[in-house]
Amino acid sequence: MRPARRRRRQVALVLVVLVLAAVLGHLLLRDSAPVGHFTSQDGVDRYRAAYARAMADLPDPAETRDVRTGFGVVRAYRFAGADPSAHPLVLLPGTASGAPVFADNLPSLTALRDVWVLDLLGEPGWSVQDRPITTERDQAAWLDQALRALPPARFHVVGLSIGGWTAANLALNAPDAPLASLTLLDPVQVYGDIPLETVVRSIPAAFPWMPRSWRDSFSSYTAGGAPVQDVPVADMIETGMSTYSMRQPAPSRIAEERLASIGVPVLAIVAGRSVMHDPDEAARAAERVFGAENVRVYPDATHALNGEVPDRIAADIGAFLARTGS
After folding, report:
1. Share of the chain above pLDDT 90, in %
2. Cα–Cα distance between 38 and 119 in angstroms, integer?
3. What is the top-level taxon of the source organism (predicted)?
């Protein structure tokens, strides 16, 4: 496997571990603090150093903003695109992964238009939570407020994994948010439930004091036995897992009848080898809700699809935006 492709695969593989760690960790690893926080100053320093190393794989942002919302400050980066007059893309990462996880996606997406990338509030990153997030409406409210604080009037939101759930949740709980469309990249708890085997295998990832080798073993399982190698973004994610304590509700399954009420065009992308749901069932569910013309299945992709097939994703988003006139 070529080094660039191997790097993409291993960077994104870590997301699978983190999605499940979040689902379990929200339930099992609580302390008395009401908001997400780093557990020590040393943890802050180590994480930010790892984040800086991972950011080195991205082009220089054209703009960096720290946006005040009612739940904390949201870090947003803008990357200049080929058509600055078009409604920009907004990328939402998976849990604990932060903006650097989209390094491989930016070249092909900025060929379409401007791209904003956010660090999710209440997660490791440069976004800083300062008010409890206790409901799905809260989770929608902070993102709605962050988007309204950015310059253009409307946005095409692209969510990966839990970022996909966050995007769908925004459309459902803040229907007046400045959305032009949604693209959901193998979102968790949207097309189907997490399989029991995956939940059981993920248990070591929920406990930061367990050996890293256990988490690496689970990552390998999610990608059909592919080896896991350390790369800057993987080190950043691992550091966040061990130094940051999240305090917000775990994502709940979104029912099909609710998904059908989303009022903007939706492109649903399903990874054919995903372990976050049954891919065949997920594709059928997405087609029932969004229509077959708005569903793409990547048969050979895993839940790490953003790093595995970035150009294919960009091409499908470009065609979707052209077809929907948005």
Report:
1. 64
2. 15
3. Bacteria
Looking from the CA of 250 toward its CB, the CA atoms found within 13 Å total 19
CATH homologous superfamily, domain 3-324: Alpha/Beta hydrolase fold, catalytic domain (3.40.50.1820)
Q: Is 225 exposed, middle or buried (0-12, 13-18, 19+ CB in 10 A)?
A: exposed
Beta strand extents in the chain (DSSP E only): 37-38, 63-69, 72-79, 89-92, 115-118, 128-129, 155-160, 179-185, 244-245, 266-271, 295-298
Whether 216 has a pLDDT exceeding 60, the answer reads no
Question: In this structure, which amino acid lies at residue 94?
Answer: G
What pLDDT, on a 0 to 100 scale, did the predictor assign at position 205?
59
In angstroms, the CA 220 to CA 228 distance is 6
Whole-Å CA distances, 136 to 200, 240, 274: 26, 23, 25
Torsion of CA 90, 149, 138, 175, to 10 degrees: -70
pLDDT digits (tens, 9 = 90+) for 47-56: 999 999 999 9
Tell me the per-residue pLDDT of 80-89, one tens digit each, with 9 for 90 and over: 999 999 999 9
Q: How far apart are CA 255 and CA 260, in angstroms?
A: 9
Rounded to the nearest angstrom, the gap between the alpha carbon of residue 75 and the centroid of all alpha carbons in its chain is 15
- Write down the pLDDT at residue 23: 47
Label residue 310 left, alpha or beta by phi (over 0 means left) and psi (-120 to 50 means alpha): alpha
Domain ranges of the chain: 3-324
Sign of torsion over alpha carbons 1, 161, 189, 112:
negative
DSSP-assigned letter for residue 154? -
